Amino acid sequence: KDKLSIWIRGNFLIPDPRRFWIKPSVRFLCDYLLKNPVDAIITTGPPHSMHFIGLGLKKSNPNLPWIADFRDPWTNLDFYEELNLSYISDKIHHQMEKKIIQKADCIVVVSNGMHEDYKLLNPKKIEIITNGYDESDVQIDHVKLDEKFSLSHIGTLNTTRNPPILWKVLSEICIENPQFKADLQIQLIGKVDFSVLEEINLLNLNNNLLKVGYLSHQEAIISQQSSQVLLLLINQSVNAKGFVTGKFYEYLAAKRPILAIGPTDGDVATILNETTAGKIIGFTDYETTKKVILDFYSQYKSGKFNVDTKSVDRYSRKSLTAELSKILNSL
């Protein structure tokens, strides 16, 4: 049933199920703009149907600057292949994507990887504005650090994000060091795939696992700031180098050490190096994983386990909005 609905969504509801918004929205907004002139149009996707509303408005108002903002890739999305598209449907998706890229006055993307991909489609202008964090969300007083050596992942943990190398290293250190086993707490907050839990259980880490279901956004922020280590697990997919989740920026704002597992030459690695907010390890790098875990644990035991971050405020939404303002003024 799920496979059928995904196939229908990918092959018939192109570019997405919101396609039925396009014509009525363009009609309504064209009338609205006659009475309420604006200086520019910004469309944000996904859903990418939003960009076709922008295209329709641009056709009716050719002198009105239009920014098409992509918060996620379109045809280079990590689960694009799972849509099971026919040859014709795939071609239509690519043609639609290219049309938006070339017709907009400016394309805005969230990462260097997306910038490189979309530059190949010859946009008129392309800029990077990353995702970020809201300062008012992360300003929480007197958050107490976890007493345990907590490694916390906040958010959905599916099969493609499962880090076998991490579970293996943690299991082996637990065997080698009983005190480490007593101190360790693997904290998984949010939806977790059964295969992840099964692997943790097979490696005898079940007693070190704290699985927490849904938390409100505020509760999730507190959990980020109280954790000893924040786990950032990147999808093992073809576009992993350019994959940067919005959650990553809240991790940066939490000012707790980040342990990322993913491409060491990707966008996350670049930001971690610039901000000195943590470490990134390759998907299969056993030696480095063990070294970093032991180093973090040693700092935790010393009572001086903190991170000295740099330039994190550039990812606040206030700073990012200032960047958007500059782009608007340039059009």
What keywords describe this structure?
6-stranded parallel sheet; 331 residues; Rossmann fold; 10 strands; 2 domains; alpha/beta; 14 helices; 4-stranded parallel sheet; 46% helix
Structure, briefly:
The protein is an alpha/beta fold. It folds into two domains: 143 residues, 3-Layer(aba) Sandwich (Rossmann fold), CATH 3.40.50.2000; 178 residues, Rossmann fold. It has 14 helices and ten strands.
Tell me what the structure shows.
The protein is of the alpha/beta class. The protein folds into 2 domains: 2-132 and 319-330, Rossmann fold; 136-313, Rossmann fold (3-Layer(aba) Sandwich). It has 14 helices and 10 strands. It has a 6-stranded parallel beta sheet, sandwiched between helices. A 4-stranded parallel beta sheet has the order 1-2-3-4, with helices on one face. The longest helix is centred in the N-terminal third of the chain and has 17 residues, at 87-103. It is globular.
Summarize the helices and strands and which ones pair or pack.
Blueprint: H1 2-11, H2 22-35, E1 41-45, H3 49-60, E2 66-70, H4 87-103, E3 106-109, H5 112-119, E4 126-128, H6 135-138, E5 149-154, H7 164-176, H8 178-183, E6 184-189, H9 194-202, E7 209-212, H10 217-226, E8 229-233, H11 246-254, E9 258-261, H12 267-275, E10 278-281, H13 286-302, H14 317-330
Parallel strand pairs: 1-2, 2-3, 3-4, 5-6, 5-8, 6-7, 8-9, 9-10
